[in-house]
Amino acid sequence: MYTIYTTEGWVLSGVNVGENNRYLDLFTQDLGLIRGVAQSVRKLESKLRYGLQDLSYSKLSLVRGREVWRIVNVEKLSVYDQVLKNKNKVELVSRVFSLLKRLVRGEEQDIALFNDVNLALDLTKKGDLTEEELKNLETALVYRILHKLGYIPDSVYLKHVSSFSDWNIQILKIDTFGRSAIIRQINDSLLHSHL
Same domain, yes or no, for 177 and 121? Predict the structure, then answer.
């Protein structure tokens, strides 16, 4: 008898395999970053296909296989559908997910990181953000991801970016000088980690 694990998560990206299967990178609430396979998902009659598109947020039911997780059921959650209708927001989400795939190693639950990503993306649902506010949101989120994963040490000057607990519109009021300082710290940490 197989144990079925059910968790919410993001479909970061996928690769088609064979005629109808697809390997997927999933960032989940309970299992962390995992690789899963969805069999026959590319068939028109597949019930899984709509909940497993790139950048989808879904409730996933998984069974652990020898090398990868098998996705046995999926329920697409429309929580972030509005965000994914805006080109600038889709690009932001894609860049953040690409970074997560590069940085997160191993299957390990990280509720704080998962919640941080979701809360930041929740903020993009609240009205129309300016291009400047979207840049600030991405900068703050990338900094926090790197900080939570240990790539950026604590900084007295940037403590306000790494320590807030509530993502709100005020956080996006970063001036050009402040954003430049954060970006410099991000670039230095990526350079030193050889990523």
Answer: yes
d(CA 158, CA 178): 9
Same domain (yes/no): 94, 183 = yes
86 with 65, same domain?
Answer: no
Beta bridge pairs of residue 59: 8, 75
Q: What angle do CA 101, 107, 110 make, to 5 degrees?
A: 80
The secondary structure element, H or E, covering residue 116 is helix 111-123
CA distances for 107 relative to 48, 118, 120, 123, 146, angstroms: 23, 19, 22, 27, 18
Q: Which domain holds residue 42?
A: 4-79
First to last CA, the chain: 41
Q: How many domains does the chain have?
A: 2
Mean of all residue pLDDT scores within the chain: 90
pLDDT digits (tens, 9 = 90+) for 121-164: 999 887 688 899 999 999 999 999 999 999 998 888 888 888 88
> Hey, is 126 helix, strand or coil?
coil
